[in-house]
Amino acid sequence: MTTILVTGGTGTLGRLVAERLRADGHEVRVLSRHSQPYAVDLREGGGALDAAVAGVDTIVHCASAQKGDEQAAANLIRAARGAGVRHLVYISIVGVDRVPFRYYKSKLAVERLVEESGLGWTVLRATQFHDLLVMVLQGLSKLPVLFLPAGVRDQPVEVAEVADRLVELAAGAPAGRVEDMGGPEVRTFESLARAYLKASGRRRAVVNVPLWGAAYRGFRNDGHLTPRRAVGTGTFEEYLVGRFGGGQVRTGSGRSQA
Protein backbone atom coordinates (compact mmCIF):
# COMPACT_ATOMS: atom_id res chain seq x y z
CA MET A 1 0.00 0.00 0.00
CA THR A 2 1.03 3.62 -0.51
CA THR A 3 1.81 6.54 1.76
CA ILE A 4 -0.88 9.19 1.34
CA LEU A 5 -0.96 12.72 2.76
CA VAL A 6 -4.40 14.23 3.37
CA THR A 7 -4.40 18.01 3.72
CA GLY A 8 -7.24 19.38 5.80
CA GLY A 9 -7.35 15.90 7.29
CA THR A 10 -9.23 16.98 10.42
CA GLY A 11 -12.04 18.71 8.50
CA THR A 12 -15.49 17.46 7.54
CA LEU A 13 -14.31 15.79 4.33
CA GLY A 14 -10.62 15.19 5.05
CA ARG A 15 -11.31 13.28 8.27
CA LEU A 16 -13.51 10.79 6.42
CA VAL A 17 -11.00 10.44 3.60
CA ALA A 18 -8.20 9.70 6.08
CA GLU A 19 -10.31 7.14 7.96
CA ARG A 20 -11.24 5.29 4.77
CA LEU A 21 -7.68 5.27 3.44
CA ARG A 22 -6.43 3.79 6.71
CA ALA A 23 -9.17 1.18 6.62
CA ASP A 24 -7.93 0.21 3.15
CA GLY A 25 -4.45 -0.36 4.54
CA HIS A 26 -2.66 2.79 3.39
CA GLU A 27 -0.20 4.69 5.54
CA VAL A 28 -1.90 8.03 6.06
CA ARG A 29 -0.45 11.34 7.17
CA VAL A 30 -2.94 13.98 8.31
CA LEU A 31 -1.88 17.55 7.69
CA SER A 32 -3.64 20.53 9.23
CA ARG A 33 -2.62 23.64 11.10
CA HIS A 34 -2.92 21.95 14.50
CA SER A 35 -2.58 18.20 13.87
CA GLN A 36 0.70 16.74 15.12
CA PRO A 37 3.13 15.55 13.90
CA TYR A 38 2.23 17.31 10.62
CA ALA A 39 0.99 20.65 11.92
CA VAL A 40 1.52 22.94 8.95
CA ASP A 41 -0.05 26.17 7.74
CA LEU A 42 0.02 25.62 3.99
CA ARG A 43 -0.11 29.34 3.36
CA GLU A 44 3.32 29.65 4.99
CA GLY A 45 4.94 26.46 3.70
CA GLY A 46 8.54 25.95 4.81
CA GLY A 47 10.51 23.07 6.23
CA ALA A 48 7.60 21.53 8.13
CA LEU A 49 5.72 21.13 4.85
CA ASP A 50 8.77 19.60 3.15
CA ALA A 51 9.00 17.07 6.00
CA ALA A 52 5.31 16.24 5.73
CA VAL A 53 5.51 15.37 2.02
CA ALA A 54 8.85 13.53 2.14
CA GLY A 55 8.32 9.91 1.07
CA VAL A 56 4.67 10.49 0.14
CA ASP A 57 3.27 8.79 -2.97
CA THR A 58 -0.08 10.59 -3.21
CA ILE A 59 -1.58 13.80 -1.80
CA VAL A 60 -5.32 14.32 -1.39
CA HIS A 61 -5.75 18.08 -1.09
CA CYS A 62 -8.89 18.76 0.96
CA ALA A 63 -7.70 21.85 2.83
CA SER A 64 -9.54 25.03 1.93
CA ALA A 65 -10.08 28.49 3.36
CA GLN A 66 -11.78 31.70 2.38
CA LYS A 67 -8.40 33.37 1.87
CA GLY A 68 -5.00 32.12 0.85
CA ASP A 69 -6.00 28.98 -1.06
CA GLU A 70 -3.87 29.82 -4.08
CA GLN A 71 -0.74 30.44 -2.02
CA ALA A 72 -1.39 27.28 -0.04
CA ALA A 73 -1.71 25.23 -3.23
CA ALA A 74 1.42 26.79 -4.72
CA ASN A 75 3.41 25.90 -1.59
CA LEU A 76 2.02 22.36 -1.56
CA ILE A 77 2.83 21.83 -5.24
CA ARG A 78 6.35 23.16 -4.79
CA ALA A 79 6.98 20.77 -1.91
CA ALA A 80 5.34 17.86 -3.78
CA ARG A 81 7.55 18.36 -6.81
CA GLY A 82 10.64 18.44 -4.61
CA ALA A 83 9.60 15.20 -2.92
CA GLY A 84 8.77 13.38 -6.14
CA VAL A 85 5.08 12.90 -5.29
CA ARG A 86 3.42 10.75 -7.94
CA HIS A 87 -0.21 11.87 -7.71
CA LEU A 88 -2.06 14.99 -6.50
CA VAL A 89 -5.83 14.67 -6.03
CA TYR A 90 -7.81 17.90 -5.58
CA ILE A 91 -11.43 18.34 -4.52
CA SER A 92 -13.12 21.31 -6.16
CA ILE A 93 -16.69 22.57 -6.59
CA VAL A 94 -19.15 22.18 -9.44
CA GLY A 95 -19.58 25.49 -11.24
CA VAL A 96 -16.29 27.18 -10.36
CA ASP A 97 -15.91 28.04 -14.05
CA ARG A 98 -19.52 29.21 -14.48
CA VAL A 99 -20.40 31.19 -11.34
CA PRO A 100 -18.28 34.33 -10.75
CA PHE A 101 -18.39 33.96 -6.96
CA ARG A 102 -15.18 35.06 -5.24
CA TYR A 103 -14.54 31.76 -3.47
CA TYR A 104 -15.27 29.84 -6.67
CA LYS A 105 -12.75 31.96 -8.56
CA SER A 106 -10.12 30.96 -6.02
CA LYS A 107 -10.98 27.27 -6.39
CA LEU A 108 -10.73 27.55 -10.18
CA ALA A 109 -7.33 29.20 -9.85
CA VAL A 110 -6.16 26.30 -7.68
CA GLU A 111 -7.43 23.85 -10.30
CA ARG A 112 -5.23 25.56 -12.86
CA LEU A 113 -2.22 25.42 -10.56
CA VAL A 114 -2.78 21.69 -10.13
CA GLU A 115 -3.16 21.14 -13.88
CA GLU A 116 0.05 23.07 -14.60
CA SER A 117 2.00 21.58 -11.70
CA GLY A 118 3.95 19.00 -13.67
CA LEU A 119 2.65 16.35 -11.26
CA GLY A 120 0.26 13.55 -12.07
CA TRP A 121 -3.10 15.01 -11.08
CA THR A 122 -6.80 14.32 -10.62
CA VAL A 123 -9.52 16.92 -10.01
CA LEU A 124 -13.00 16.04 -8.77
CA ARG A 125 -15.73 18.67 -8.61
CA ALA A 126 -18.65 18.03 -6.26
CA THR A 127 -21.81 19.94 -5.37
CA GLN A 128 -22.33 21.41 -1.90
CA PHE A 129 -22.29 19.06 1.09
CA HIS A 130 -25.40 18.62 3.22
CA ASP A 131 -23.37 19.84 6.21
CA LEU A 132 -22.56 23.16 4.54
CA LEU A 133 -26.16 23.73 3.53
CA VAL A 134 -27.32 23.21 7.12
CA MET A 135 -24.62 25.57 8.40
CA VAL A 136 -25.85 28.26 5.99
CA LEU A 137 -29.49 27.72 6.97
CA GLN A 138 -28.62 27.82 10.67
CA GLY A 139 -27.09 31.23 10.14
CA LEU A 140 -30.01 32.51 8.08
CA SER A 141 -32.59 31.26 10.58
CA LYS A 142 -31.22 33.29 13.49
CA LEU A 143 -33.66 36.02 12.52
CA PRO A 144 -37.45 35.67 12.97
CA VAL A 145 -37.78 35.68 9.17
CA LEU A 146 -35.73 33.35 6.98
CA PHE A 147 -34.68 35.34 3.91
CA LEU A 148 -33.62 33.26 0.90
CA PRO A 149 -32.18 34.19 -2.50
CA ALA A 150 -35.11 33.97 -4.90
CA GLY A 151 -35.00 31.54 -7.80
CA VAL A 152 -31.96 29.57 -6.60
CA ARG A 153 -31.80 25.77 -6.58
CA ASP A 154 -29.27 23.42 -5.03
CA GLN A 155 -28.12 19.80 -5.36
CA PRO A 156 -26.56 18.83 -2.02
CA VAL A 157 -24.49 15.67 -1.76
CA GLU A 158 -23.57 13.41 1.15
CA VAL A 159 -19.98 14.13 2.22
CA ALA A 160 -19.28 10.46 2.96
CA GLU A 161 -20.02 9.58 -0.64
CA VAL A 162 -17.58 12.22 -1.85
CA ALA A 163 -14.98 10.82 0.55
CA ASP A 164 -15.51 7.34 -0.93
CA ARG A 165 -14.95 8.70 -4.43
CA LEU A 166 -11.77 10.55 -3.42
CA VAL A 167 -10.38 7.37 -1.83
CA GLU A 168 -11.08 5.50 -5.06
CA LEU A 169 -9.32 8.19 -7.09
CA ALA A 170 -6.35 8.38 -4.70
CA ALA A 171 -5.79 4.64 -5.02
CA GLY A 172 -5.74 4.84 -8.81
CA ALA A 173 -3.56 6.46 -11.45
CA PRO A 174 -3.76 10.20 -12.21
CA ALA A 175 -6.94 10.73 -14.22
CA GLY A 176 -7.07 14.47 -14.94
CA ARG A 177 -10.45 16.14 -14.61
CA VAL A 178 -12.94 13.38 -13.78
CA GLU A 179 -16.71 13.55 -14.08
CA ASP A 180 -18.51 15.82 -11.63
CA MET A 181 -20.31 14.40 -8.62
CA GLY A 182 -23.70 15.76 -7.61
CA GLY A 183 -26.34 14.88 -5.07
CA PRO A 184 -29.42 12.83 -6.04
CA GLU A 185 -31.89 15.72 -6.23
CA VAL A 186 -32.02 19.24 -7.64
CA ARG A 187 -34.23 21.17 -5.22
CA THR A 188 -35.39 24.73 -4.77
CA PHE A 189 -33.55 26.45 -1.97
CA GLU A 190 -36.93 27.12 -0.37
CA SER A 191 -37.85 23.42 -0.25
CA LEU A 192 -34.50 22.62 1.35
CA ALA A 193 -34.95 25.42 3.88
CA ARG A 194 -38.43 24.22 4.82
CA ALA A 195 -37.13 20.68 5.25
CA TYR A 196 -34.42 22.01 7.56
CA LEU A 197 -36.89 24.07 9.60
CA LYS A 198 -39.17 21.07 10.05
CA ALA A 199 -36.33 18.75 11.07
CA SER A 200 -34.73 21.22 13.47
CA GLY A 201 -38.04 22.26 15.04
CA ARG A 202 -37.71 25.93 14.11
CA ARG A 203 -40.65 28.04 13.07
CA ARG A 204 -39.76 30.85 10.70
CA ALA A 205 -41.54 32.79 8.01
CA VAL A 206 -39.76 32.15 4.70
CA VAL A 207 -39.31 35.04 2.27
CA ASN A 208 -37.64 34.80 -1.13
CA VAL A 209 -35.68 37.94 -1.94
CA PRO A 210 -34.39 38.82 -5.43
CA LEU A 211 -30.73 39.78 -5.32
CA TRP A 212 -28.37 41.27 -7.88
CA GLY A 213 -24.91 40.79 -9.31
CA ALA A 214 -23.13 38.36 -11.61
CA ALA A 215 -22.63 35.68 -8.95
CA TYR A 216 -26.35 35.64 -8.12
CA ARG A 217 -27.19 35.35 -11.81
CA GLY A 218 -24.79 32.42 -12.05
CA PHE A 219 -26.55 30.63 -9.21
CA ARG A 220 -30.00 31.43 -10.64
CA ASN A 221 -28.87 29.99 -13.96
CA ASP A 222 -27.94 26.71 -12.20
CA GLY A 223 -24.25 27.12 -12.94
CA HIS A 224 -23.39 25.26 -9.71
CA LEU A 225 -25.53 22.21 -10.51
CA THR A 226 -24.81 18.99 -12.39
CA PRO A 227 -28.17 17.27 -12.92
CA ARG A 228 -26.70 14.82 -15.44
CA ARG A 229 -24.24 13.66 -12.78
CA ALA A 230 -26.73 13.12 -9.94
CA VAL A 231 -24.77 10.08 -8.78
CA GLY A 232 -25.08 10.59 -5.03
CA THR A 233 -27.71 8.54 -3.24
CA GLY A 234 -28.08 10.14 0.19
CA THR A 235 -30.92 12.67 0.24
CA PHE A 236 -31.12 15.86 2.27
CA GLU A 237 -34.01 14.46 4.32
CA GLU A 238 -31.98 11.37 5.19
CA TYR A 239 -29.13 13.60 6.33
CA LEU A 240 -31.54 15.67 8.43
CA VAL A 241 -32.91 12.58 10.16
CA GLY A 242 -29.39 11.55 11.09
CA ARG A 243 -28.58 15.04 12.28
CA PHE A 244 -31.78 16.04 14.08
CA GLY A 245 -33.86 12.88 14.46
CA GLY A 246 -37.58 13.40 13.98
CA GLY A 247 -37.46 17.11 14.63
CA GLN A 248 -38.82 18.99 17.63
CA VAL A 249 -41.30 21.85 17.74
CA ARG A 250 -41.21 24.25 20.65
CA THR A 251 -44.51 24.91 22.42
CA GLY A 252 -45.51 27.90 24.48
CA SER A 253 -44.83 26.00 27.72
CA GLY A 254 -41.17 25.58 26.79
CA ARG A 255 -41.56 21.83 26.31
CA SER A 256 -41.01 20.15 22.94
CA GLN A 257 -43.23 17.90 20.94
CA ALA A 258 -42.29 15.55 18.11
Automatic annotation (TrEMBL):
It comes from Streptomyces violarus. This is Uncharacterized protein YbjT (DUF2867 family). Gene3D superfamilies: NAD(P)-binding Rossmann-like Domain. Residues 8-131 form the NAD(P)-binding domain. GO terms for molecular function: protein-containing complex binding. It comes from the Bacteria. InterPro entries: ComplexI_NDUFA9_subunit (IPR051207), NAD(P)-bd_dom (IPR016040), NAD(P)-bd_dom_sf (IPR036291). Signal peptide: none annotated. PANTHER family: NADH DEHYDROGENASE [UBIQUINONE] 1 ALPHA SUBCOMPLEX SUBUNIT 9, MITOCHONDRIAL, NADH-UBIQUINONE OXIDOREDUCTASE 39 KDA SUBUNIT-RELATED.
